[in-house]
Design brief:
This protein is mainly beta. 6% of the residues lie in helices and 46% in strands. The protein has two helices and eleven strands, in the order E-E-E-H-E-E-E-E-E-E-H-E-E. Strands 2, 4, 5, 6, 9, 10 and 11 form a seven-stranded mixed β-sheet that branches. The longest helix is centred in the first third of the chain and has 4 residues.
Length: 127
């Protein structure tokens, strides 16, 4: 059973940075792609960044490319999302998720009832 727990959310001004962390249950990285999703108020949840279980390759949503960086620490069972140059449209609840998926792009669009999800952490970016 996969368990995920996010931390590191908070409030920041536009242009600032935050680093999110996700504690991942042991051996999850061996079998599951793991990544970050977010849900803005009144909007559908979207995939932000995912890292592959196969080879560590990464996926980024176009809206965050060049600003966000995903990383994992396999021995510590931790997943991170470094968020720089934050914008007000980055505001939302950020979720850590794990899934087995044919491609990272497919995982980025997975439904709420697919995979495993953490409870989420709030990020507020004020302009």
């Amino acid at each position: 059973h996969v368990q995920l727990a996010e931390s590191g959310g908070g409030s920041v001004q536009a242009g600032g940075s935050l680093r999110l962390s996700c504690a991942v249950s042991k051996n999850t990285f061996d079998s599951y792609h793991v990544g970050w999703f977010r849900q803005a108020p009144g909007k559908k949840r979207e995939g932000v960044s995912i890292i592959s279980s196969y080879d560590g390759s990464t996926y980024y949503a176009d809206s965050v490319k060049g600003r966000f960086t995903i990383a994992r620490d396999i021995p510590r069972n931790m997943l991170y999302l470094q968020m720089n140059s934050l914008k007000s449209e980055d505001t939302g609840v950020y979720f850590c998720a794990a899934a087995m998926s044919r491609t990272l792009e497919r995982m980025a669009t997975m439904a709420d009832n697919e995979g495993y999800w953490g409870p989420g952490t709030h990020v507020t970016v004020s302009s």
